[in-house]
Fold:
Amino acid sequence: MAPQLEPFFQKVDDLSGSFIDRLRKAVAIPSISAQDENRPDVFKMGQFLASELEALGAEVEQRPLGKQPGKEHLDLPPVILARYGNDKNKRTILVYGHYDVQPALKEDGWATEPFDLTVDAQGRMFGRGSTDDKGPVLGWLNVIEAHKKAGVEFPVNLLCCFEGMEEYGSEGLEDLIQAEGKKFFKDADAVCISDNYWLGTEKPCLTYGLRGCNYYSISISGPAQDLHSGVFGGSAHEPMTDLVNVLSKLVDVQGNIMIPGLMDLVAPVTEEEKSLYGDISYSMENLHESLGSETSIHPTKERTLMARWRYPSLSIHGVEGAYSAPGAKTVIPAKVIGKFSIRTVPNMESEQVSKLVFDYIKAEFAKLNSKNTMNVWLQHDGKWWVSSPKHWNFTAASKAVTQVFGVEPDMTREGGSIPVTLSFEQATGKNVLLLPMGSSTDAAHSVNEKLDKRNYIEGTKLLGAYLHYVSEEPINA
Amino acid sequence: MAPQLEPFFQKVDDLSGSFIDRLRKAVAIPSISAQDENRPDVFKMGQFLASELEALGAEVEQRPLGKQPGKEHLDLPPVILARYGNDKNKRTILVYGHYDVQPALKEDGWATEPFDLTVDAQGRMFGRGSTDDKGPVLGWLNVIEAHKKAGVEFPVNLLCCFEGMEEYGSEGLEDLIQAEGKKFFKDADAVCISDNYWLGTEKPCLTYGLRGCNYYSISISGPAQDLHSGVFGGSAHEPMTDLVNVLSKLVDVQGNIMIPGLMDLVAPVTEEEKSLYGDISYSMENLHESLGSETSIHPTKERTLMARWRYPSLSIHGVEGAYSAPGAKTVIPAKVIGKFSIRTVPNMESEQVSKLVFDYIKAEFAKLNSKNTMNVWLQHDGKWWVSSPKHWNFTAASKAVTQVFGVEPDMTREGGSIPVTLSFEQATGKNVLLLPMGSSTDAAHSVNEKLDKRNYIEGTKLLGAYLHYVSEEPINA
Structure:
């Protein structure tokens, strides 16, 4: 056991009641970034964090980000930048989190008031933002407080970057990260983000990869206006007919992407990589439980996780411009836009992917011999991210998990994207670790969001232990 | 020239100013059946018609239809049932029209106030309801007035059935028609409906056929709730992938329905029928003008009109449950419902069509090997209608057209449906003629709806002349 951890752990247990109170106060502030009327609450939550950090002895700045683009009557909430400790002999660790939350109304189906933290007999703490991401953010504050009150020397210099617009596209954050890469963040030796989830409910994980996402639109247009299908059906080319034809050529029902050359861009699986999957605590039952159905494609856990984490996938999201309401309408839509996206993985470069997509769709449309007009374009892209799970930032975190939970963490990736991860990596040039606090059943973004008391209190211990291990982990590890 | 027509024609010309005034008064009443707040205006319009008919000497009844289903706070507007003349030695002609209109707001893009009839230098009379269907309905009233004022004996007994809910699905009408088939309508020798349009702008037409419509939904469902495409893309069967596959198998880009056996149900084209198409006043330029594009499927007028009128067509209308808004959302929809309809023609029976559709779609879905669940069902159907253009009701109308316009009418069908046509045929057992007043450029249901003064005034002459010819047309013709 690393020195100093026992008194720190003991103090976290002693303070657990006040740590839950801190979370209760934070949950009570409905800091919903997507709703204009709650903007003052987002500011209030930023002030709450700033005050708590100052009370703990951190230097805090509430960095304004200006007006909200497209909603200029609203000020963007500030990024809370904080520094705790400034000792040249210690490593500096940059941590990120967000203090805004998703909307929530009791009427949506919550069993309890969403902004009133409610702890049940099993220690489940229900409340909007409990797990996403107020619990993890407060975890860092709890770590500072427990060290102070236990009289344990803080092992690192801590830099905090807490934003208030994450649930609304992190407006303004990217520019700040890039601008501060060589300024406020310049001392950072490594980065740690706690804003994702364990793969299951029992075993912690460290996350070393994320898929990227290229989002495409295909528009097909013909007549100048929507047509009556009685009057024109059979005599004019229908854009919707063309579109379902093109969309049906993108991916097969078993999930195989049918765009020639695309799979050639995917990095081959190494034996070493393969060996990581067998031990991961996950089962087909876990998948079926989260799907709410048994409509899985692959027969095994390993193939399922690889399909989710390290292979690309293509999903068709919908059609804009066609009839989408309940009931029946006999319209021939004049212009329809199909939307699909490709989740990307190493070594798929966005430009290469787009070229293959565009060439293929143009060729398939040409084969149709339609007189309609087709366009295809990239709506947005975000790059995949993969880090080395052998970096000292990860090995330190792994030791911390083993220390606190008595088990080695699963090394996982995620199928989705967390764009800020890549931003921090690019701006600082340092390794980024994703160290989740919550579990797979926490229902972030959904009704009855919760954080288990165990995940919060042991998770606070984990964040503290991580700082100790990362302060002394050999760079060559 | 049939006796009595010259003085009638002269009187119509003399009264044209007051006939336009009558239309102006009717257009000024915003009898929009789809908008709750306009329901009193629909009643006002019914009262206007009843008063005018009574002033002309007709026996009038405003038949109540009870509460509006699903909107029980609203009374359905009455059906105006009127009888003009009761001479056992004359034929009795039943005419139908509707006095409600589509919604209209100046802000929608009207050049003039939609409920203020505005006549421009070219004699175009702009106003909501001018052509659909207040002009034709008032045409019958004008015919009575001109006969009275010219001192010309009215050639037939006239039965009127004018409804006030046509633009909202003719709520309550079907029951009334079937109930009155052997009561109020029992004397009818033939039926005439003026609620459609010329194929072009110069040449009148008589319409003897309508396509039917079978409307289908295909639902495909998999997971219990919408999924994040990052987390689940590649590991679960996606309902939208299955749906675009199935939809792509229904119809090809050239409009050929791919459901095996369906085309075998279509009545073969006879040589006599073929001969009707060559003379019809229509061109590919007309089609391209109404499409606003040159995205026609067929190279000739004849094939275009046959594709529209006497062959079935299949249109895909849209998808319910998928992402349909502008922008980008990375959702995997849990349940999607594809909507399509088949325009039907003789001799396609609805049950036969549905059996072929269901069998084919089930077989195609089975081929996909998806674990998702598929259902397909008929949302609604309406039968096609074809009458004989050689019936005396038609030959009489043809002579009237030749008399008034100096040209033989085109014998046309329509690609869409007018369900009331079949209802009157079934309830009365008599021939139904569609005798349009307005032209193809009248923009019914759209902004700047209009009726040309020529179509209204010469159209009034046509309705009167038709009554004279139909009163004496030999039954064997």
